[in-house]
Write a sequence for this structure.
């Protein structure tokens, strides 16, 4: 039986609220592959939100190479000059129920022979932006080969949520391509990833030590804090791997495992 993870919603006060063009939640599974739009326009009811006064905007483009098909989402960093440019791509709203387990999957790439893009953050926000759920942080994005990624999580608060991809760049770092975004409820429509089916981890939540057994042939294991700090990194092994959590504060941690161009993030809760 596939294990799932309880991802506790992080609640905090912020001044920004999400103003969606379309407020009706779309049914799951929700797939956004950008093929319904005419470049450079983004698909209906999705939009680009620039958090800084200057910088580029997300748009839609024809697939840059044969690794992508149809259209893709695109963010060009060439007009960004300086440090700390941030722009969000925000999808249509979805209704997520407390206690249900969901999976978000997508693929992304940069251009060849370009400096690495600083970071791409993936998160969920409630309609009033009072609930923020960090899902993933991809740092130093380089190379034109697409990376396929998925995140599985369980929420605690029933609400309407928006999935957002926040790109941070200091400029002239290439073009970020994004495609095949999918949100689904794994208990109903989820399809197990056979390449990662042999990852066993327990206990979760964890107090002292997390045990991980790998029979998939995946290349590595990495543990990150929710802010993106690397806490543990070792080549993956078929034998049991123990990660000591005793000195870590309570909270959510991200365990990354997988092959070079196909990886998965599992949320681990430290009590």
């Amino acid at each position: 039986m596939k294990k799932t993870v309880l991802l506790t919603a992080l609640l905090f006060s912020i001044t920004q609220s999400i103003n969606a063009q379309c407020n009706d939640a779309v049914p799951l599974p929700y797939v956004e592959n950008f093929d319904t739009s005419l470049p450079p326009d983004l698909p209906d009811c999705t939009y680009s939100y620039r958090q800084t006064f200057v910088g580029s905007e997300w748009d839609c483009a024809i697939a840059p190479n044969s690794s992508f098909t149809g259209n893709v989402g695109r963010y060009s960093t060439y007009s960004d000059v300086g440090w700390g440019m941030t722009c969000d791509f925000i999808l249509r709203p979805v209704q997520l129920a407390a206690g249900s387990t969901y999976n978000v999957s997508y693929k992304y790439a940069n251009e060849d022979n370009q400096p690495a893009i600083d970071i791409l953050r993936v998160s969920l926000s409630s309609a009033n932006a009072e609930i923020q759920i960090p899902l993933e942080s991809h740092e130093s994005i380089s190379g034109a080969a697409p990376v396929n990624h998925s995140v599985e999580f369980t929420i605690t608060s029933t609400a309407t949520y928006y999935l957002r991809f926040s790109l941070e760049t200091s400029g002239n770092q290439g073009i970020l391509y994004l495609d095949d975004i999918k949100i689904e409820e794994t208990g109903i429509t989820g399809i197990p990833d056979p390449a990662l089916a042999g990852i066993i981890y327990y206990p979760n939540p964890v107090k002292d030590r997390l045990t991980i057994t790998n029979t998939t042939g995946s290349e590595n294991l990495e543990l990150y804090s929710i802010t993106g700090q690397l806490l543990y990194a070792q080549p993956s092994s078929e034998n049991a791997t123990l990660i000591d959590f005793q000195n870590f504060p309570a909270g959510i941690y991200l365990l990354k495992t997988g092959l070079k161009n196909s990886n998965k993030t599992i949320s681990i809760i430290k009590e």
Confidence is low (pLDDT under 50) at residues 1-21, 188-193. The chain has two domains: 10-185, 199-270. Residues 80 and 171 are 4 Å apart (CA to CA). The two ends are 24 Å apart (CA to CA).
